[in-house]
Amino acid sequence: VQLQAFGGGLARAGGSWSLPCAASGITFSRYATGWYRQAPGKQRELVALIRSGGSTNIADSVKGRFTISRDNTENTVNLQMNSLKPEDTAVYYCYAQRIFSASNYWGQGTLVTVSS
Fold first, then answer.
1. Are 50 and 70 a contacting pair, CB within 8 Å?
2. Which of 15, 35, 60, 85 is most buried, by the most CB atoms less than 10 A from its CB?
3. CA dist 91 to 24, 37, 65, 95, 114, Å?
4. For 81, phi and psi rounded to 5 degrees?
5. DSSP secondary structure of 51-116
């Protein structure tokens, strides 16, 4: 199983950034997928999650600014981040959770730094 995250880097406050993640080795439709993040000195937190049917969970801190989408044929999930703030600076982790199961997988973290 592999969750390959792409797209970390340096963004500007007020700008946009996209984080795609490609999954392999799982039956993608059986997993909810999304992104967590961990800022320096803070706990890892859920950013956004999307189920195969399209329903989502979005953290209050990013609601209205971030959107999540997935392509069930390409086995990819994408986090679109708009109106970025310096507090969005974090290591972002791609995540997959098997529905009706405790089984889950993590991708390697990718650092997004938002400069003011």
1. yes
2. 35
3. 21, 5, 18, 13, 11
4. -110, 120
5. -TTS-EEE-TTTTTTEEEEEETTTTEEEEEE-S--GGG-EEEEEEEEETTSS-EEEPPPEEEEEE-
Half-sphere exposure of 57 (CA within 13 A, CB side): 11
The residue assigned the tokens 């995250």 is 5
| Residue range 53-91, pLDDT digits in tens | 999 999 999 999 999 999 999 999 999 999 999 999 999
pLDDT at 22: 97
All residues at 6 or more sequence positions from 54 whose CB lies less than 8 Å from its CB, including other chains:
70
One-letter amino acid identity for 44? Answer: R
